Amino acid sequence: MAEVVFDLYDREKLLLAEGQAILDNGDSLAIRQFAERLFDRFSKLVRENEDLTRHSDRQEQRLVKLNRNLKTQTLELEQQRSRLEGLSNQLAKYLPPQIHDALFAGKYDTQITTQRKKLTVFFSDIKDFTRTAESLQPEALTEYLNEYFSEMTQIALSYGATIDKYIGDAVMLFFGDPESKGVREDARACVSMALEMQEQMLVLQRRWLERGFENPFVIRIGINTGYCNVGNFGSEQRLSYTIIGGEVNVAQRLEASSDPGGILISYDTFVHVDDLVEVEERQAVNLKGIDRSIKTYAVKGRKSEADKPLRLSHAQGVYIDLSPKSLSSQDCLLIAEQLKSLARQLEDLQAEQLSLSKELIG
Amino acid sequence: MNLHIAATDRTPEISLTYQPLKLLIQGESFPEDVSAFYGQVINAINSLQTQAKGELQVEMAMIYINSSSIKAMYRIFEGLDAYRKAGNQVEVVWKAEEDDDIMQELGEDFKDRFQELIFSIIQHG
Questions:
Q1: What is the pTM of this model?
Q2: Which ipTM did the prediction report?
Q3: What pLDDT is stored for residue A62 in this prediction?
Q4: Which CATH number describes the domain made up of A112-307?
């Protein structure tokens, strides 16, 4: 049996159909009886319609009110968001970008917690800053200093450095926290950054000379790699994300011992960049609280591609480390022949193993 | 025959039991096809006149109801009124949330239209 489809307006529709038939027929008694029923139904419909319209009006009114509230709230939220964005942009200038980003993403823990981590620490300051500053008008000093800090900061951020703080004319930054690419890569990024900074200083010095800055700033840089305590130091009311430890002092001491315009690195940094930069060993330094003599190296520039050591290593016991400088042309040929012969043997071995495994499967 | 329809996000829970004789409608009502949804309920209520006897307790607690559903509610109230006219007592409790003046006023409208039914409106938190 087919399901009877219910219709909310079935009675009204039935009346209309019935009325049409009665009108066509023209029987006056039938018309009168029909008119009475029509009147009754119509009266009910009018009442229903009144109620429905009133209810509909109330719903609309509520919607309009809700919509108004929503608009007001959206506007307030937008104003708040705009204020927060402005605040965030202002704060970004005072905080290391990694910390700022983590804070605003809600991923940063502001507990007083620190951890020991191997970092590469960088210090730089301007040689004879006090004397240079005294010879300049305050406006000019501000202009040159801002230019200097802006350019250095830009380079530092492009290498992923965490800028710890500016101390007067000095810059303290480090690599390895909160983000790290590994101790070696962090150290290499730091030294590469320092080289670019000194290169940029030469550009700045020329620019400043042209503008009448007679003795333009020259900076010294010190870099050290070692274990430091990193994290939030301070009190519940006021925190500072920074690093402390003897290795931080070493970096500062290296900076003080560096040549003007130069970069002085410790042995612990040098081991990670020996293939990257040309260095000159300098006098070792001793520091209070550090029970070892620190070997130091002045960075003289980047190594050319030809100077890079030729290295090959594999867990199966292969280790090749050749220094191009110590190889004669004859050595090169001899080693190349030996390696080619070894390569052929390896290829034969691989082909043999492949055919054996096919036989086994077949 | 007892009727029970579980609530969905568009339709209310509806139950009609004979032992005890009770009708409950609660939730939100904006079905896609009002005639199809309420048809079975209206038919069940209309059949009370022949299949039931005695006092009928009705509880209605709507949160939101669209205009088409109100039209269906009229048919339900007409069915309840017909059961009353057949000599039975019908007691309706219309529940509306305390801050929902729309549902309270809708209850007042039904109360006004079906004056012979025992009709009380209760606010709840």
A1: 0.57
A2: 0.73
A3: 86
A4: 3.30.70.1230
